[in-house]
Amino acid sequence: MLYKKRLMTPGPTEVPPTVLAQGGQPIIHHRTPQFRKVLTEVVAGLKRIFNTENDTLVFPAAGTGGMESAIVNLCSPGDAILVAACGNFGNRWTNIAKAFGVESEHYEVDWGQAVDPKEIEKRLAANPKITAVFITLSETSTGVESDVQTIGAIVAKTSAVLVVDAISGMGAIPMKTDEWKVDVVVVGAQKGLMIPPGLAMVSISKKAWDLAKIAKLPKFYFSWEKSQKSMVAEALANTPYTPSVSLLMQLAESIRLIEEEGIEAIWERHAKMGAATRAAMEALGLKLFATGRPSNAVTSVRVPEGVDGGKLFKTVRDTYGITLAGGQGQVKGKIFRIGHLGYADDWDVISAVAAIERALLEQGYKVELGKGLAAAEKVLFG
Amino acid sequence: MLYKKRLMTPGPTEVPPTVLAQGGQPIIHHRTPQFRKVLTEVVAGLKRIFNTENDTLVFPAAGTGGMESAIVNLCSPGDAILVAACGNFGNRWTNIAKAFGVESEHYEVDWGQAVDPKEIEKRLAANPKITAVFITLSETSTGVESDVQTIGAIVAKTSAVLVVDAISGMGAIPMKTDEWKVDVVVVGAQKGLMIPPGLAMVSISKKAWDLAKIAKLPKFYFSWEKSQKSMVAEALANTPYTPSVSLLMQLAESIRLIEEEGIEAIWERHAKMGAATRAAMEALGLKLFATGRPSNAVTSVRVPEGVDGGKLFKTVRDTYGITLAGGQGQVKGKIFRIGHLGYADDWDVISAVAAIERALLEQGYKVELGKGLAAAEKVLFG
C-alpha cells in the first residue's frame, strides 16, 4: 500500500514545494548585489514575523548555535543568571551557560508543567544581581508553552534582560517580541519557518545590546557585534563569513508564503490544529502529557498502559508513512509527540489521528475507530 | 546578448545539477534510519576524500566555525601556539585565538609568498612549549598553497599538533592527511566539495584528541567530544543537535561524483586548470600575484597599471556573466582572482580567459585578442 511520507515531528518540519524548489537553484556569490537583495529582504521579513524593530541577525548554525550566541554575548564569568526550564531545551540554557563557566540559578518545573511567572518574579526580587532570564517559548520536549507575555512584563521592570528560545514556536504560535518586551529572541530554521535546518536567527533589543557591550565571555563565530556590523550597521547586507546562501534563498521564499497567509492567520491555524489534536487524543481515552499550558505547535501524549510506545511510533511511521516523535530525556518511551507546525493543515492532523487510531487498535488497545477523528473534525470545522 | 551565469569565485563554487537537485528533495527527519544511512555514508566518504582514518565530524556552520572548533577544542588560556599565515585566512587563526584569550606567535609572510617550512622548524625549536601549529592549505585571499607535506614532517617530530585550514583546498589540490601527518583538518562545504555553504568538517588524529582532552577553553556548540560521542563512539550516526539535513543529502551526492571521477584525477584536473590560467594571464602581459607556491584552486592576478580593477570585475560579471573575485584586505583593488575549483572544467577556464581579454581591451589595455586563450589551450591540451 502506498502511504505518502508525512513529517509530523516538531522539527524538522515539512518544507513547502516552492521553498524546496529554491533549494535546487544555482548558487549565487554572497558578495553580489543579487545576494544582498536576498539578505536585505530576509532580514526585513524576519523582523515583521518576529514583531520587532530590533536588530535581527542570521547565523549559519543549528538553533543551539543561536542559543550559545545569547549566552556568550550576554554573560560574563560570575554573572548571576536565571534559567526557567520546563524540559530538555530549557535545560540546554543551563548546560550551555555551565560549559562557559556561568552557573545559572536553575528553576525547573515538573515536565509537562509550565514555568510560573510568579516564581520568576520572586526569584528576581530575591536576587537583584540577576542580569538575564532565559526561557523557552514552546518547549519541544514536553509540548508546553511559556507565558512569555506575563514573564516579559515582569522582567521588564527589572534591570535583567529576557531571552526567549523561540526556536520551535516562532511562526507557529504568538510571539510579539516588542510588545511583550522580549530582549533577545532565538529562532531556528526548521520549525515554523518551514525551511531545512541550518540557520539560527537572533533579535537583540537596545537593553540587550547594553548588556552585550560589557559581557566578557569569549566569542568569535557567534559574535553579535561582528555580525551586526556587517549585516546592519554598514548597511551592506554583508556577513562576516560565508552565509548559507541556499538556505537564505529558501527563507526568502518561505517568508513570502508566511506573509501571504498572514502571521495572525497562521497563529489561528496552529491554535485549531493544536486544539483538534488534543481533543482527538482525549476522545481516544489517551492522557495528554502537557497539563500546564499545552503548546499549539506540538502535542505530547502519554503512551497508555499496555501499549508499546516504540512500536506505536514505528507502525505509524513505517506502515502508515507519518513520522511522529518519541519522548526525550526523562520521558523517553513514556510519551509520543505529534508535531503540527509550519507547513501543516487540517488534513495532516486528521491523517495523523487516523493513523494513531489504527496503530493503537493493532496493539489491542481499545479504540472506537473514528472517535478521535470525529472529535478532531468538530474542532477543525467549528 | 545572453551570457550564462558562471561562478568562478574561490567559493562558493558552482554546484553540479544532480547535487542541486538533492537540495530540492523533501526533508527527512534526522532521527531516522534513512538519515543515519546518509550521515554514515557521508562520514565514510569524507574520510576517503581526506585520505584519513581519523575521526571525522560535521558541524552545521561556515568554515570559520570549523576553525573556531579547532581553537576551542585544542587550546587552553596561556598556551603557546604558532600561526604561520600568508593571507587573510591565515590571519583568521590568530584573530580567533585572540578572541578566546590565546596569544599566538604570529609568523606572517608577505602576501603572495608561501610560508617557509624552515621558519616553522626554527620557531618550534626555539619554543618547545608550542602545542599547536596552524596553517592554511590554499590561501584563498592570495592564491598561495602551503607545503603541507614538508611542514607535516617537521611538526610530527615535535609534541605540537598540526592544524590545517583546508577549507578551500580539499577536493581540489592534494591533501594526504594521514600520510602527511596532519592532525586536524578543517574543511568547508562550498569549495572543492561543490555544495552550497553551511557545513564545516573536521578530522582529528589521536595526537589531537590527546591535546583536546586537556584543553580548557570553553565550548558547547563546537565541542568535538559531544559530536564525536553522537556521530562516532555510540555508532548511532547521530548528532548532538539538528544537523543540516538538506546540505548533508547534497554532500552525499557530491561525494558520489567526486569518487566517480577519482580524487587523483580531480587533483590533476585542477593542476591543469591552474597552470593554464597562469599561462594565459602571463601571455597577456599580466603579473601573477602569487609568486610563492601558486595554488591550483585559485589564480590571483595583479591589476595592471592603467586598468580599473573594480570596473574589470564588473564588466566580466555583469556583461559577460562570469563572476570572479576581487582582492581582500591589504590587496583590495590591487588584484583580481579567478576561482577554478570544484565543478569547473577546461571550457570554464577558456571562457574566463576570453572574457578577461575582452574586458581588458575595452579599457584600452593593449591585448592581442586570443593570445591568452592560445596559451591556456596549449597547457590544457598538453
Notes on the structure:
The structure is a homodimer of 382-residue chains. Chain A has 382 residues and is of the alpha/beta class. Chain A has two domains: 6-12 and 263-381, Aspartate Aminotransferase, domain 1 (Alpha-Beta Complex); 18-260, Type I PLP-dependent aspartate aminotransferase-like (Major domain) (Aspartate Aminotransferase, domain 2, 3-Layer(aba) Sandwich), CATH 3.40.640. Chain A is built from 13 helices and 13 strands. Chain A has helices at 17-23, 33-50, 63-74, 88-99, 117-126, 148-156, 206-214, 224-233, 245-261, 263-283, 309-319, 346-362, 371-381; strands spanning 6-7, 55-60, 80-85, 104-108, 130-136, 138-139, 144-145, 161-165, 184-188, 199-204, 298-302, 322-323, 335-339. In chain A, helix 5 packs parallel to helix 6, helix 10 packs parallel to helix 12 (346-362) and helix 10 packs antiparallel against helix 13. The first copy, chain A, is globular, with a radius of gyration of 21 Å. The interface between A and B is large, with 55 and 56 residues.
Label this structure with key terms:
Aspartate Aminotransferase, domain 2, seven-stranded mixed beta sheet, 2 domains, alpha/beta, homodimer, Aspartate Aminotransferase, domain 1, about 375 residues, about 15% strand, two-stranded parallel ribbon
